[in-house]
Amino acid sequence: MTEAPGVDAYARRYLAEAREALAEPYVLEAVRAIAPILVRARAAGRTVFFFGNGGSASTAAHFVVDLSKVAARGPGRRIKCVSLSDNVPSMTAWANDADYSRVFAEPLRVLAEPGDVAIAISGSGNSPNVLEAVKVAKEIGVTTIGLTGIGGGKLKGMVDVPVVVPSNSMQHTEDVHVTLLHLLTAYLRDEGPVSER
Q: Can you give the CATH number for the domain in which 37 is found?
């Protein structure tokens, strides 16, 4: 059996840093800001759009599954949501025929309506295709939420609700994003207003 020197100390340090990133007041502030937006979107039948690159694309797709399947409140009260990161043919068409920075913005321009919600996920907050999609969302009248870290980049100043993980670690930033999204999903499933039913 191969030894893994220092793995215990490394794991303890990683978990301590993750707990520290989750323990700060910004997480509760984020839930207070985002939960009512999602509750209203569900009640009004609005669509919630998600997009991001790499690990953030996976987070976008993951949350669409959770929100559309788990966060139901009575008949017909599921949240309509779309991950713009999932349509690979559309993404490659825009990247090839226009520019990679348009891969989320152009589908959003076609699909989104005023009153919808866009959740932009970028660990650095500086992904050009995420920023372009936020610009389009703002033009349309879509409520924008940004999940980021590493200082927040340009994204934090562009969205209606910025959530900036206070960490320079991409892993901890993504850990918090997934935990926050699971928390919101559980809240919408378990604690949403009874009047929505």
A: 3.40.50.10490
